[in-house]
Each structure stands twice: as structure tokens, then as C-alpha cells.
Design a protein that fits this description.
Length: 120
């Protein structure tokens, strides 16, 4: 089964754009569906089958709005330090690592919730 990633690409004017990627193939569309349809047309002459999981990246019980906001703040600070060739504060790095782990655990929890619905 092929893996396809669909990414929301921010644009300067705020218009939503999505990029679908699988291996060395990429397509873009105004919706996630358009990007996926364009990509699957390139992948094979065979019918495409699979399971599609969509993550809205909105706050949920597994990873809250406060956690998302803080993670974004820390990532901005980390990028600024990196771009200015400066060390990143160890305390902030520890907090960033903890939030990254929490986000990963939230993904696992969402997957377990989905699995319990699909295969009770």
C-alpha cells in the first residue's frame, strides 16, 4: 500500500492550498481532495484503494489549544535561534521536547480511538 501525505500549505493571501506527496510525485490543489485526486491519477493505471485518515490539527482532548499554542511559540523561538546561529535555551528545549512527545502520544491515542471504532 502506498503512503500519501497531504499537507496544508499556507499562502501569503490566506487562500488554502494543499499538496499531496507520495514518493517522488507531488500535486497541488485548492482542496485536499483535489490534491489527492491529481496524485492518484499519476500513481498508477490500476484503481487506487486504501484507507484515508484525516487529521484536522485542531485542538482536541488529546492535545489542547494551550499545548498547540505553546508548541508553536517554542518552535518559532527554536527556529529564530537556529537561523541566528545561537544556542537554544536548555529549559525551553526541555519544554519543547516534552510537548513534541505529548503531540506524538496524542497521535497514538487518536489512532487507538479510531481502531476501537473500526475493529471493536
Amino acid at each position: 500500500m502506498q503512503t500519501i501525505a497531504i499537507l496544508h500549505i499556507p499562502t501569503p493571501d490566506g487562500t488554502p492550498t494543499y499538496r499531496a506527496i507520495s514518493g517522488n510525485k507531488q500535486t497541488q490543489g485548492n482542496t485536499a481532495g483535489q490534491a489527492l485526486d491529481a496524485l492518484t491519477a499519476q500513481l498508477s493505471d490500476q484503481p487506487f484503494g486504501g484507507t484515508i485518515l484525516l487529521q484536522s490539527f485542531r485542538p482536541d482532548p488529546h492535545f489542547t489549544e494551550a499545548q498547540q499554542t505553546r508548541l508553536a511559540e517554542l518552535m518559532t523561538a527554536w527556529r529564530t535561534a537556529r537561523d541566528n546561529d545561537q544556542p537554544f535555551d536548555e529549559t525551553l528545549q526541555t519544554e519543547l521536547d516534552a510537548l513534541t512527545l505529548a503531540e506524538l502520544q496524542a497521535t497514538g491515542e487518536r489512532s487507538m480511538t479510531l481502531l476501537s471504532v473500526i475493529a471493536p
